[in-house]
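Milestone 3.1: sequence recovery, worked example.
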């Protein structure tokens, strides 16, 4: 006859063995997920490198200057386009016009007045 404690220990060993197999398969699934994420990160980094290379090519000053010359038809500013200081309107020096007054402080609300305590009561 099997003693009850032996049966209990055998059951515990089986449960621990089952739990270990479950943990093993969960760890394997997590490792697969980690490998997939690492591959995705590597692919993203490679894509960023390619985009940086393209950006460097597209923003070369000589290339941009050539595109601007070809498509924008820009010309240097001529002296006729520059104005004189006399053409700039001056401020109105009329003393009758006063600067705007600062906004008035808002009146306290009833709730603020209810919570107000004079310094003697504090």
């Amino acid at each position: 006859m099997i003693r009850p404690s032996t049966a209990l220990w055998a059951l515990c060993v089986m449960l621990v063995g089952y739990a270990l197999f479950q943990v093993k398969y969960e760890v394997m699934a997590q490792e697969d997920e980690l490998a997939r994420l690492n591959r995705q990160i590597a692919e993203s980094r490679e894509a960023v490198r390619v985009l940086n290379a393209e950006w460097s090519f597209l923003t070369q000053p000589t290339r941009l200057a050539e595109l601007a010359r070809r498509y924008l038809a820009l010309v240097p500013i001529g002296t006729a386009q520059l104005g004189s200081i006399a053409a700039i309107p001056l401020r109105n020096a009329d003393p009758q016009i006063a600067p705007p007054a600062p906004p008035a402080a808002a009146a306290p609300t009833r709730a603020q007045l209810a919570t107000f305590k004079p310094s003697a009561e504090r």
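The chain has three helices and no strands. The mean pLDDT is 84.
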